[in-house]
């Protein structure tokens, strides 16, 4: 004979104050747990969405990022001859030889400096990146000291609005446009003409070459041909994989940090649950004796108290997830450890994070409630009824 779940619900409602306090502690722990996972997922998603599956990116072999890469003009001309590169409507290859450098800019409303990526691009970079679109102004003209800024940069940094001027590379650059790149890393960049930027920074080599493939299935062909060419010291990656690799180090660190903090906080929450359930057992000794006298077995008593503890913790977990979900409304920025530049992103709540948070809260309830439940199940019927 099993004890109905409504019995556990009724007991939790009877002890509303202690139930609320304990569930609140569980909610705080789950909030921290979910927020850290949302933070890591937001960074990962922002960088992964930056790339396109149909694009291939070529960098110097063993380079951790475009900033550390260098491709001379001779090697770039060899890459341009690859037959797998798509051709645009104007008859030109959908390929962009790019320069990536980092400059220091001051944030709006403060004198705090931060690193920002400057990307030198060809005349038609939007054809390679459909997620990017101009929202204000125009593209920079070839041969002029003009740049366009991502929406995230325009809002956060001085001198990045339309018509404003930026000073870098010992030259003054005019911002002639603002582009939107959605929830991608491009929103945190400034783009300009690659030849003008190479002259300004005295960089005779490109950082990377991005090209669109005629067919996504041709990736292995162009990869093997370039990497096996003895004239080249380059490697090829799908653009999505390249940006996924860029997020790996930071997301791994955040997950380890989040799990460590959560374990520390969860110890306090589980101790609170244990104390609450021990108090419940002490106050219901006669009730437990009555249940045993009515024929309920020890395992039924154990299960009933475990269900009670887990219901309390899962309720707290759902509450913590509810408040954590509002973190998606905020856009924050951090330093990308691969490029040491600022990256704007949003917290991202996924089904996997919800699943993990609920399982984690149930586990806290199980661990915190097991000893009190075990004690309740081991009570002697006669001794328990004498407390009436």
pLDDT averaged over residues: 81
- Terminal CA distance: 24 Å
Low-confidence stretches: none
Q: Please estimate the helix content.
A: 40-55%
User: How many β-strand runs?
Assistant: 12
Count of discrete alpha- or pi-helical segments spanning 4 or more residues: 11
Order of helices and strands: HHEHEEEEHEEEHEHEHHHEEHH
Percentage of residues in DSSP E strands: 15-25%
From the alpha carbons, calculate the radius of gyration and give it in angstroms. 30 Å
Quick one: overall form?
elongated
Category from helices, strands and their pairing: alpha+beta
Biggest sheet descriptor: 10 strands, mixed
Summary tags:
ten-stranded mixed β-sheet, elongated, 11 helices, single chain, alpha+beta, 388 residues
Describe this entry's structure for a reader.
The protein is an alpha+beta fold and 388 residues long. Helix content is 49%, strand content 20%. It is built from eleven helices and twelve strands. The strands form two sheets. Strands 1, 2, 3, 4, 5, 6, 7, 8, 9 and 10 form a ten-stranded mixed beta sheet that branches. Strand 11 and strand 12 (341-346) form a beta hairpin. Helix 1 (5-14) packs across helix 9, helix 2 crosses helix 9 (298-325) and helix 2 (16-50) packs antiparallel against helix 10. It starts with a helix and ends with a helix. The mean pLDDT is 81.
């Amino acid at each position: 004979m099993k004890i109905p779940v409504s019995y556990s619900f009724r007991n939790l409602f009877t002890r509303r104050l202690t139930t609320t306090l304990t569930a609140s502690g569980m909610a705080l722990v789950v909030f921290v747990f979910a927020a850290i996972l949302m933070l890591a997922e937001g960074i990962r998603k922002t960088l992964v969405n930056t790339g396109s599956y149909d694009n291939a990116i070529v960098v110097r072999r063993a380079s951790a990022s475009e900033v550390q890469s260098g491709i001379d003009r001779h090697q770039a001309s060899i890459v341009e001859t690859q037959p797998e590169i798509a051709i645009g409507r104007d008859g030109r290859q959908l390929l962009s030889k790019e320069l990536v450098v980092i400059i220091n800019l001051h944030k709006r409303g403060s004198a705090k400096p931060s690193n920002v990526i400057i990307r030198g691009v060809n005349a038609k970079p939007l054809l390679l990146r459909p997620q990017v679109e101009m929202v204000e102004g125009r593209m920079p003209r070839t041969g002029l000291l003009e740049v366009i800024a991502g929406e995230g940069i325009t809002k956060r940094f001085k001198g990045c609005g339309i018509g404003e001027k930026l000073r870098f590379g010992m030259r003054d650059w005019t911002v002639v446009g603002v582009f939107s790149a959605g929830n991608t890393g491009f929103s945190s960049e400034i783009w300009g003409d690659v030849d003008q930027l190479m002259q300004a920074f005295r960089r005779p080599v490109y950082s990377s070459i991005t090209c669109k493939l005629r067919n996504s299935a041709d990736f292995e062909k162009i990869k093997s041909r370039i990497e096996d060419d003895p004239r080249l010291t380059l490697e090829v990656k799908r653009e999505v994989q390249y940006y996924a690799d860029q997020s790996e180090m930071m997301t791994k660190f955040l997950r380890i940090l989040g799990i460590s903090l959560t374990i520390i906080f969860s110890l306090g929450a589980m101790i609170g649950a244990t104390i609450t359930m021990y108090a419940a057992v002490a106050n219901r000794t006669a009730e437990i004796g009555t249940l045993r006298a009515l024929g309920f077995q020890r395992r039924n008593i154990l299960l009933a108290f475990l269900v009670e503890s887990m219901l309390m913790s899962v309720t707290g977990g759902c509450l913590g997830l509810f408040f954590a979900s509002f973190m998606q409304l905020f856009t924050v920025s951090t330093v990308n450890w691969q490029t040491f530049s600022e990256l704007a992103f949003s917290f991202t709540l996924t089904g996997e994070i919800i699943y993990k948070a609920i399982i984690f809260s149930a586990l806290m309830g199980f661990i915190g409630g097991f000893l009190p439940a075990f004690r309740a199940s081991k009570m002697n019927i006669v001794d328990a009824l004498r407390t009436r």
